[in-house]
Amino acid sequence: MRPGWQTNLTFVAFPYSISMTHQRYFTLILILGTLTALGPFSIDMYLPGFPAIAKDLRTTIGEVSLSLSSFFIGISAGQLLYGPLLDRFGRKKPLYVGLVVYLLSSVACTFATTIEALVLLRFVQAIGSCAAAVASVAMVRDLFPVQDSAKVFSLLMLVVGVSPMVAPTVGGYVTTDFGWQVVFLILAGMAAVIILAVYFGLPESSPPDKNYSLKPKPILTNFYHVLRVPQFYTYAFTGAVSFSGLLAYVSGSPLLFMELFKVSEKQYGWIFAFLSIGLIGASQVNSVLLRKYRSEQIIITALICQTITALLLVTGTALGWLGLATTIGFIFVYLCCLGFTFPNASALSMSPFSKNAGSASALMGAAQMGFGALATVLLSLCKPQSAIPMAAIMAGSTLLALLILVTGRKAIPVTPDRPPVEVPAGMLH
User: Fold this and answer.
1) Weakest-pLDDT range from 119-123, 197-201, 351-355
2) Which of 118-122, 170-174, 216-220, 270-274 is predicted least confidently?
3) CA 20 to 30 Å from 279, out of 151, 155, 193, 207?
4) Cα dist. 167→277, 328, 353, 360 in Å?
5) Phi, psi of 415, rounded to the nearest 5 degrees
6) Where are the domains of the chain?
7) What does R_g of the chain's alpha carbons equal in angstroms?
């Protein structure tokens, strides 16, 4: 990061310019980070409650995991809805609507008496939360220079990192001492606080575009034009498919640790928090590496390492070589690699866009959660009694992501500021 960048940067926010002081920069990152973290909190905090939910609703942990799949499906579909709305009405109005929907559905989840009701309410909750996810990515593109977006996404991951480090641990204690329903009340309270933070601390970063049509044909045409950009589809789908391996781990981790390795809800929260340190720590190291290497170089190196780790994990799991400690070790390294892959893929996907940043953000997020939903549904259909299905999906997703990257980058035009990608030998040692 260039010296003094935080204190001298000026960005254009409708309808006026704001000089970004260090304090203002920190405030924006914090609010955008909490918006980005709302979805992960909604996923991670209730994971320790799976056994309790299954008992109260008279079902199985596998059936309860469908509420996680419906959440991913809702986020994927909802982002395609909010993308055009963010471009048509500006960023904040659709964001308010989504946050209110999220708040009300979170409260409603506490009254669910059947697994079917919980699955449906989680879908509605996801429709609300994805407004925050799409808006935060689009506003990064609005408020910060393109060349600094990878660094900003890395900082957002630091805020998002509070979720997997804190949410499962808190969820484990809350579920044990007060019941799983209280987890959803906490999520509703978080939404209320975020609404106030957005109102008082976040500028409107894009003016409403009255010429932007909300009719299906123009919206689909706009999505089509975004998808035609080689840099977008290469890095968006690389990041999305790689990200699906993370969601397969998240979905399979309650069975892996609490059923197979027999850890308690509280112990599970601490293990989940520890593993998340790898994801968040790597995303911050990524900011340092960006001073010397380009995003294109980092992402190819990280994916190669992630693929090797995933193959070792699935092989060791299938042959019965891995205990609790070694399983945690391989997953930790896997998440470290993802901490390099995800922010760089996001930045490279969004960098070609300015006017259509909302639609591009929506497509990128929809791809991430769409592939994630596919991974969790596939895992649920396997009705796993071991860790093999989870490890296999993690390995398969990483291999596919590497294939997409290697083939797709050939279509990206080579320009003076974007030379051919070469993996620095030192990054593989």
Assistant:
1) 351-355
2) 216-220
3) 193
4) 13, 18, 34, 29
5) -125, 165
6) 20-413+422-428
7) 21
Strands (DSSP E) contained in 135-253 are none
C-alpha span between 201 and 13 (Å, rounded): 13
Answer for the pair 83, 358: CB distance below 8 angstroms, yes or no.
yes
Instruction: Read off the amino acid at residue 243.
Output: F
Q: Give the distance from CA 257 to its chain's centroid.
A: 22
Whether the CB-CB separation of 183 and 174 falls below 8 Å is answered with yes
Look at residue 376 and give its three-state secondary structure: helix
Q: SS3 breakdown of the chain: % helix, strand, coil, rounded to 5? A: 80, 0, 20
Q: ∠ CA 232-237-243 to the nearest 5 degrees?
A: 130
Whether the pLDDT of residue 413 is over 80: the answer is no
pLDDT tier for residue 15 given thresholds of 50, 70 and 90: very low
For 312, other C-beta atoms within 10 Å of its C-beta total 18
Backbone φ and ψ of 286, nearest 5°: -55, -40
Question: Is residue 206 within 8 Å of 91, Cβ to Cβ?
Answer: yes
With contact defined as beta carbons under 8 Å apart, do 159 and 34 qualify?
yes
Q: Which residue has the higher pLDDT, 104 or 62?
A: 104
Distance CA(76)–CA(362), nearest Å, equals: 9
Angle at 49 between CA 390 and CA 278, to 5 degrees: 50
DSSP H or E segment with residue 183: helix 181-201
* Confidence (pTM): 0.72
The set of residues, in sequence order, having a beta carbon less than 8 Å from that of 289 and lying 6+ positions away, is: 298, 340
Report the candidate in 185, 251, 208 with the shortest Cα–Cα distance to residue 383.
251
CATH 1.20.1250.20 applies to domain 20-413+422-428: yes
